[in-house]
Amino acid sequence: MEAIALRNVSKAFGSEESRVVALDSITFGIKEGEFFSIIGPSGCGKTTLLHIIGGFTTPSAGAATFRGIPITRAGPDRIVIFQEYGLFPWMTVSQNIEFGLKAKGLAKRERQQLVKRFIERVSLRGFEDRYPFQISGGMKQRVGIARALAPNPEVVLMDEPFGALDSLTRDVMQEEILRIWGETDRKTFVLITHSIDEAIFLSDHVLAMTSRPGRVKEIVRIDLPRPRDPRIRTSDPRFLEYKQHLSSLLRGEAQSAITI
């Protein structure tokens, strides 16, 4: 069953005289419980596409639906994790995670139990009372993930969540997100990323977009076993084949973008 469906979605910005087409006739579906990644050259409309799914902006044409219902606004069923962490600097780790639970109207005892559970889940025990400036970038991202998942959303949207991290921490966070995804009944995850390796390692399907205006160039099914061993990044020939194929697709699009 499709959780999210886009049918002939286009998005343009500006007036008629200065109109910029960001997305053109995008059609695809994302199944319930799927880990779905979107990659493409800079400026191809990836974040715009995520914002349409999240309900932060509406298409100029076509339709986006969640479980058959048109997406017209943001809602607690679809949570976004941003690259910038988005933590409140005046709140502790626990308070940041608790924020969405308060907005949901949960009783204090239930909030405390959920905060404790997610502190354990993202391996931050002992840092509950620290403020964001007192923890590392990787820890901040884990707080952001815990805060997003604690209110139990149906869909988790991620916009380059690991882009600001160093290579080693990024690899560790990819493994963490897969572990957390597996422990939360495999909610539907949608990831925007520039990293082909990251998209392959995490995903069930990878959508490769064209240069602007963004269109669907190809959707690649990632047929690798789960749970995924981190060593497949360098040892599994299928991983390397996927990487070569997707790199070839995007290289052509990047060259097109440069010549526009």
Question: Can you characterise this structure?
Answer:
With 260 residues, the chain is α/β, with parallel strands linked by helices. The chain folds into two domains: 179 residues, 3-Layer(aba) Sandwich (Rossmann fold); 67 residues, no CATH class. It contains eight helices and ten strands. A six-stranded mixed beta sheet has the order 6-7-8-3-9-10, sandwiched between helices. A four-stranded antiparallel beta sheet has the order 2-1-4-5, with helices on one face. α5 links the parallel β7 and β8. α2 crosses α3 and α3 crosses α4. The longest helix has 23 residues. The protein is globular, with a radius of gyration of 19 Å. The chain starts with a strand and ends with a helix. The relative contact order is 0.18. The mean pLDDT is 90.
Task: Produce the secondary structure layout.
Blueprint: E1 2-13, E2 20-31, E3 35-39, H1 46-54, E4 61-66, E5 69-70, E6 78-82, H2 93-103, H3 108-121, H4 137-149, E7 155-159, H5 167-183, E8 188-192, H6 196-202, E9 205-209, E10 216-221, H7 232-235, H8 237-259
Parallel strand pairs: 3-8, 3-9, 6-7, 7-8
Antiparallel strand pairs: 1-2, 1-4, 4-5, 9-10
User: How confident is the prediction overall: mean pLDDT?
Assistant: 90
> In the CATH classification, which architecture of the largest domain applies?
3-Layer(aba) Sandwich
Rg, Å, rounded? 19 Å
CATH fold-level label of the largest domain = Rossmann fold
Number of strands: 10
How much of the sequence lies in strands comes to 15-25%
Q: List SSEs in N-to-C order.
A: EEEHEEEHHHEHEHEEHH
The largest beta-sheet arranges its strands as: 6-7-8-3-9-10
**Category by helix and strand content:** alpha/beta
